[in-house]
């Protein structure tokens, strides 16, 4: 009983009154977000011409950001759900952060198609509703499939995130006083920790984990079909679905490390997020890096084996054309540097892992950019070739997306438990502990 009391006290101490460092970080991220929104306001007032996208590259950093953040989002729930199904004990150190990351990343991802529209106020044309003019979306378009896929995934991720917190919300109801206690009382849905409640809770959580796992794979496959269903060289390939799913897990794992390492230090959670746990997630990062690298090799190999001159030229252009510095930086960050994780000493070096995770995030963003832009810049017809460089407005809006994501995560740190208290209790004694 004393042990459970200590676990609750130590984990919830992360939610105590924030210090100056927290407020500085929140002010900085919030300011970046506001600046990004000002750039968006400028684009809305002036028109989409202030962005660098133009013929032939009509998809630029806005779509790059959308694919990047969707990838980050898809991996969060996947990591949590898959590790739960496999009963991986180190999951309890990362699942809450990964699930919160999923929700916030989806919020950011959902903004960029609206920003890319230019005339954001007509976004409802994407939704299937019976209008007077009988204008319906084109259901054969993968872009419409995105609307259904992303909204479904956001719904399931929110439910999975919320259901997993219900027992912890009941603990917080007891631990806090005043308005916070009343809020947590409402959110905990009257949870009392009875045996019947636990039985229903565990069945529901298992069902959601089993449901979310294939859903994640299918949703990111649909995002990949935005490209693969076209006939553009470099896009029209059958390996895009597994390629995108592996890339999503890879980038999401890196983002989890990016978030958890400083959180662990600042909130003094070293006891619950140990070096052994971080080494385990580093192995996932290494494994997914190898899959992504395999896809990098297979893509041009298929073009050469098929003797398709347009595909061969597309991959030659990626490696040696206008965007070759970005391509080779992507290879360095996503394929070469993660190989250092074969060395156990580096897998257990927290600072090295944090720096590597930042580089992988950079590499995965560049991967999305190179895939999208290089194929559009070099289509079939040479007279229509062109290059693309993001404008200041696009850069500002992109940074604003990062500002929104990190602001939301910082607020999460002080309003909800960053670790699953009930699962930590179960892990501490190796048995089910069904006391509130």
Question: Could you please describe the fold and organization of this structure?
Answer:
By secondary structure, this protein is mainly α. It is built from 15 helices and no strands. Helix 4 (95-117) packs antiparallel against helix 14 and helix 8 (240-266) runs antiparallel to helix 9 (275-306). The longest helix is centred in the middle third of the chain and has 34 residues, at 142-175.
Basic shape: globular
Evaluate the radius of gyration.
23 Å
Query: How big a fraction of the residues is strand?
Result: under 5%
Structural class per helix/strand content?
mainly alpha
Taking all residues together, what is the mean pLDDT?
A: 88
Distance between the termini: 11 Å
| Helix-strand pattern | HHHHHHHHHHHHHHH
- Poorly predicted ranges (pLDDT <50, ≥5 residues)? none
